[in-house]
Amino acid sequence: MKENLRSFFIKLFAISVAVIIIINLIFNILLGERLEKIDKIISMSDSSTRNEIKLKIRSELNKGLEKENIFSKEDKVLIYKIYKKIQKEFEDLELNNTN
Questions:
Q1: Which residues of 21-37 are buried (b: 16+ CB within 10 A; e: fewer)?
Q2: How far is CA 95 from CA 5, 42, 98, in A?
Q3: Whether this model's pTM surpasses 0.70
Q4: Domains of the chain, residue spans
Q5: Which region, left, alpha or beta, applies to residue 72 given φ > 0 means left and ψ of -120 to 50 means alpha?
Q6: Radius of gyration of the CA atoms of the chain, in A
Q7: Residues contacting 43, CB < 8 A, separation 6+
Q8: At what angle do helices 47-66 and 33-42 cross, to 10 degrees?
């Protein structure tokens, strides 16, 4: 009886440790990197973080300018539709202001 209980507790402890390690690994792999990015966004008051983000944006803009086409055809159609909608709303605003 004592031997069975001892074996049971050893197995229970081993399984518990294994589950904790697996949960920790999953958390670090899936969420750890995302949490670092969220921390960077939250720490926008830090000037070094702002400079880092500014340099990253400039780098991405320069990469985009080097390409022949910045937008895909689908993106161009979508942006054009948004542009036309905004243009119509401004025309409506002008008509309402003249009346």
A1: eeeeeeeeeeeeeeeee
A2: 85, 42, 5
A3: no
A4: 1-68, 70-99
A5: beta
A6: 28
A7: 49
A8: 110
* CA 81 – CA 38 distance, rounded (Å): 32
Q: Do 43 and 49 contact (CB within 8 A), yes or no?
A: yes
Give the helix, strand, coil percentages of the chain, each rounded to 5: 90, 0, 10
Q: What is the number of other CB atoms lying within 10 angstroms of the CB of residue 15?
A: 10
Per residue in 29-86, pLDDT tens? 877 777 777 777 777 677 777 788 889 999 999 998 888 888 889 999 999 999 999 9
Enumerate residues 6+ apart whose C-beta is below 8 A from 40. 49, 52, 53
What type of residue sits at position 42? Answer: I
d(CA 28, CA 22): 10
